[in-house]
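Q: Here's a chain of 371 amino acids. Please give me its 3D structure as tokens.
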Amino acid sequence: MHSRRDELLAVLVILPSIVLLAIFVYAFIGQSIKASVTDWGQRAALSLNPEIHYVGMQNYKDLFTGFLGMRFRQDLTSMIFFTALFVVVALAVGLGLATLVDHLVWGEAVLRTVFLFPMSLSFVVTGTIWRWLLQPRGGINQLPTVVGLPAGQFLWLSSREQRLAFDWAALPHYGCWMLAIALGALAWTNFRRARPGTARRQAVATAALLALAVSGVARRLAILDFPEMHGFNVAIWGVVIAAVWQQSGYTMALYLAGLRTIPDELREAARVDGASRFQIYRYVELPMLTPITVSAVVILGHIALKIFDLIFAMAGPDHAPTSVPAITMFLKTFRGNEFAVGSAIGVVLLVLVSLLIIPYVSTSFREGGDQ
């Protein structure tokens, strides 16, 4: 049993951290949200007593639907593509390296150190190195000349080619159809589980009505009065390569630790049942690594959503093909003195990161409380 004195001492020990967290994190978040619903920056932003007016959600509306918010919308699209590619490739490379190191007979310590070394560098150093390596007339493009082949022609960071383009004005339409597909899949699952007869007919009728309703709404929704195409800029691949080079060692360490915690008895039992080496890897080891994969996705996704310094060092703030919302936030806030718009972009990034972090944290607390 803890005494009253011990509880009071524990509160006093953590109180300074709570106060500092409240002031320098949550108070500043609140200040940013407050600034994002004003017009701070349009009238003498740097004056001693700037004229600030409340404008509600106008800054957010301009970012997502205004003509001048076109760059932010492309940056948001680029960030989503970058996050998806970075997380998937980093997980795949990290898992491959962990599997390789786990099966080495000798040289494990050396290779593990080599693969982890990029983590010791800052994103600024990594960006500077890879900016040299990805020059169109040098670096990686010159490697084929070593064996007598012609130099590569890929533009890397300089490319302005865009793929998988979509119309931003039709974004609600796409969203509604994705919702219709999800509802249809849910109805099909209920249909298969329901008993024959009335329950199945009700499931089919519900799915049909939902699909019709969603498609009807989709035809009437439009967030822009003009078509605006956005897509995946090929130049993002250069940033993905640099980011994966630095963070794949981290995912390797996570997966390697997970592989080492799998009991050998499970592998032996699978061998006794006639499983091949690949089947053991596929049906025994990979399922046991699922919690590590979830944790790695959250951490890597958090890094990708707020990426700034790597892109700033590799391509600079003015190179639109590799720009992300954090870059635009920097330009709006510190170059254009549009503090309200910069705060709005920061709040959007906070919401995106929260959508990734909060479900993971709440699930972890729930599982911890059940044990």
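Q: Can you summarize the key feature?
A: The chain has two domains: 37-161+234-370, 169-220.
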